[in-house]
């Protein structure tokens, strides 16, 4: 079952690796066999999904275990649905709609696998809604001794806060049981507004609707706010015309943006002017549709990203500090900065563990070196006890992360229990969790 390895690159082209072997199991029994074979050969094993993490969390020089064939619905129990770990988020509407169900919340990208998204802390926005891992009520792991381990609210329940968001450090996730909700619609109102006004009123804005976020293009004074309100599923849809939708979602968000990113890389001095033009081209929208059609956007322009969670009340001060930093350094930043919120949760390595959180995400076009920008933004975020998104670029280590995660040592104790010989380790996990 172990095939010769081949060059693998992640979506953002920030990671390239050639594993010794690849494996694409189609069943839990085959996952068990791959792990046993790797262990016998003294090789490490890392699961890989869609490659949408910007860190090296999925990289290995041992066995790269592709979970993509472990997909689809395995079982349904009321509003709880068990799905294969390799199920891509974009597959879920076709799987859940016939059941009259939906995810409680989603981010704006749906290319990730379910296991990859939950294991790295993927989240959407909404002051009373947690990240994707908070919707996990059970999962199955294959552990380092090739044991199939069930973890849910009745069986090994003490492991659930660690395993829901496990960084791939505890074993290979082969399925997850998700607490879904009845299907619902969303009304989305998108409006360009003065940035300072949005920051001044951020506490009320971020809690005043079900799902609030905004984007700010550096070198401008405008925020594009997005306010989503949950509605009954039978609410009649209100959609843009085909032409308007194509202009906003295809021409501007992907086609023109790709061109402007390329121009900005070659002629950075043009970026402020381009961003100000983009500000004026953004149209107001007021649309209603099924939840997944509102949550998700089609983003094809490749980028690299760093994102930090901080206490929600600190978001305005932190964003103002980033704005001042960009101006002071004279950087020309073509990609917008994204601001979102999430409820506190109880998953030990969640960026929102124990506190209501705000998220600030910074991006660079994938052909630009993001290091200086990301390091400087990280320094600001660490001043607010920031926690980096596990799947996005950061420069922290186990010592610094232990200081901002109260249950960090508890997670490492579970890792010692389930993977004492570090079958599932790699350079990234050695850095962020220690040996």
UniProtKB/TrEMBL annotation:
GO MF assignments: D-arabinono-1,4-lactone oxidase activity; FAD binding; L-gulono-1,4-lactone dehydrogenase activity
Gene Ontology cellular component terms for the protein in this record: membrane
Protein name: FAD-binding protein
InterPro entries in the cross-refs: ALO_C (IPR007173), FAD-bd_PCMH (IPR016166), FAD-bd_PCMH-like_sf (IPR036318), FAD-bd_PCMH_sub1 (IPR016167), FAD-bd_PCMH_sub2 (IPR016169), FAD_lactone_oxidase-like (IPR010031), Oxid_FAD_bind_N (IPR006094), Vanillyl_alc_oxidase_C-sub2 (IPR016171)
PANTHER family to which the protein is assigned, alphabetical: D-ARABINONO-1,4-LACTONE OXIDASE, L-GULONOLACTONE OXIDASE
Organism this protein belongs to: Glaciihabitans arcticus
Family annotation (PROSITE patterns): FAD_PCMH (PS51387)
NCBIfam families (UniProt xref): bact_FAD_ox
Claim: Amino-acid biosynthesis is one of the keywords in the record: no
Domain of life: Bacteria
Record-linked SUPFAM superfamilies: FAD-binding/transporter-associated domain-like
